[in-house]
Write a structure and sequence with these properties.
The protein has about 475 residues and is an alpha/beta fold. It has helices at about 1-35, 40-65, 75-95, 105-125, 140-165, 180-200, 210-225, 235-255, 260-285, 290-295, 315-325, 335-340, 340-355, 375-380, 390-395, 415-420, 470-484; strands at about 135, 200-205, 325-330, 360-365, 390, 405, 440-445, 465. The N and C termini lie far apart (about 95 Å).
């Protein structure tokens, strides 16, 4: 009878394991489908939902079907459910209340939480390496996954928190050449810790915990030191890079738990973040190493020569110029997000189109404070995706554009990138707004962009400045156009 019972249990465990693996595979496929759908604003919302369904499936399957190597099911399920509920409510409340201008900070904060989770997993699992035995062999893949998850997750968490502070204007840059050497030393020391721990042979895992805590502290310090020197203009690249770090750290957890869903999700985040980081660097014509050790943005070296006399334009003249044009290009920047004027911009574009004007939006890949910031901003206002034109194609159309309307953008339209070899942004691809027949620049004042350099586009013969809050100016422009 006992043998029958044992056989029944074994069959039950086998079927449970098979079902768990199947659900993980389905969840992984949903993650991939969701990521693919994120490539277009039209399908992005559905993509998020598909990926979320996959994650919910993986969580439920893990709680109900997972068993450890001793055949024990997951315990403390009520506490797990409470933690999930609390996290869900907090996350939903934050996401609902966040302003579009604070979206980069939100992304950085959530990314940091992912890194912290990966690091905590490593801290919790290291003492249990031997699965109840007295000793554990350190030189194993399991140990390596734990140590990499601890290091990368901690760096991602600390770096993301610093990035959050920089984006929120509460943390400044620390420009010191010695930090490059310090950061390199930190990295070498962390790699040394990993090698040292893995060469320890059979030891009691608890005896290594002081070393693990020291490694954690150094990783957190390195994460702070790593991001502190990087200028504000490079924050989109930094966010993308830290996002890839979090993905890699999560993948280490997938290796550790032999969890295909966690592994797939981590790999997707890590690889997507890496690819996006490379693309962002190309958009600025800079290497990743130059971003990390450079001094571009937020107070770096800058040209400061005055370009000439600023010419203003009245609201009525701007309305006439726009209304009687054949083609208008709107080039948005962070100032549009600050003014929360995206809905009014869409309203103005529809009004102009009703009067026979072709309206398009020139989108620079590093405009704003995070990857795709302007795409998200305009998608929120229901601007058709087909009207969003990338910088290269937009630049090619500028010569046939009657009016380029620059709203809150600065560095991404700065001609210094093309004609001033001494400029820190020289070589960076820009939207050549100055090639349009007329340029209207909407700004509060003559403040410089994140790169802190002068923009001679503002002094060009074909440029007119429309000073004031973008939201108020566009609202008045709409009224003027309607009155024509």
């Amino acid at each position: 009878m006992d043998k029958v019972f044992q056989l029944t249990q074994n069959i039950s465990f086998t079927l449970g394991d098979a079902l768990l693996e199947l659900i993980y595979v389905i969840a992984s496929v949903l993650f991939i489908i969701g990521l693919k759908m994120l490539s277009s604003p039209k399908s992005a919302k559905k993509g998020n939902l598909w990926a979320a369904v996959g994650m919910v499936m993986a969580i439920i399957a893990t709680i109900t079907l997972h068993v450890d190597k001793e055949g024990q099911a997951i315990g403390n399920i009520p506490l797990i459910l409470v933690a999930i509920a609390v996290g869900t409510v907090i996350g939903w409340a934050i996401a609902v209340k966040v302003k579009m201008t604070a979206m980069p900070q939100l992304v950085s904060f959530f990314n940091g939480m992912g890194g912290a989770s990966a690091a905590l997993i490593s801290l919790m699992e290291f003492p249990h390496l031997a699965h109840g035995a007295a000793t554990a062999a350190m030189g194993t893949g399991e140990v390596l996954a734990i140590l990499l998850g601890l290091m990368i997750g901690s760096v991602s968490f600390a770096g993301s928190m610093v990035a959050f502070g920089k984006l929120d204007g509460k943390v400044g840059d620390i420009r010191a050449p010695f930090l490059r050497v310090v950061n390199l030393i930190f990295l070498i020391v962390l790699i040394g810790f990993i090698v040292y721990i893995m060469l320890q042979g059979n030891v009691v895992p608890q005896d290594m915990m002081p070393v693990i805590y020291i490694m954690l502290a150094i990783s957190l310090i390195y994460g702070i030191s790593f991001v502190m020197p990087i200028g504000g203009a490079d924050m989109p690249v930094v966010i993308s890079l830290l996002n890839s770090f979090t993905g890699v750290a999560a993948a280490m957890g997938g290796f550790l738990y032999d969890n295909q869903a966690m592994l797939t999700g981590g790999i997707l985040v890590g690889s997507a973040g890496t690819i996006l980081t490379i693309l962002m660097c190309r958009a600025m014509n800079r290497s990743l190493m130059n971003v990390i050790i450079g001094s571009f943005g937020g107070g770096g070296a800058a040209a400061s020569s005055e370009g000439g006399t600023v010419k203003e334009i009245s609201l009525s003249d701007a309305a006439v110029l726009l209304n009687y044009s054949s083609k208008v290009y709107v080039i948005p920047g962070y100032g549009l997000a600050v003014a929360q004027a995206q809905h009014l911009v869409n309203e103005m574009s529809k009004l102009l189109e009703a009067n026979g004007v072709e309206v398009k939006f020139g989108i620079h890949s590093v405009a704003g404070r995070m990857p795709g910031h302007m795409n998200v901003l305009l998608a929120e206002a229901d601007v058709p995706y087909e009207k969003l034109i990338e910088e290269k194609d937009a630049s090619e159309e500028m010569a046939s554009t009657d009016v380029a309307v620059v709203i809150g953008a600065n560095d991404v339209v700065n001609p210094a990138a093309l004609d001033d070899p001494s400029s820190p942004i020289y070589g960076m691809p820009i939207i050549k707004a100055g090639s349009a027949k007329n340029v209207i620049v909407m700004k509060r004042g003559m403040g410089k962009g994140y790169a802190a350099i002068e923009n001679n586009l503002f002094y060009a013969d074909n440029t007119r400045m429309l000073f004031g809050n973008a939201k108020d100016s566009i609202q008045k422009l709409i009224e003027e156009i309607k009155a024509l």
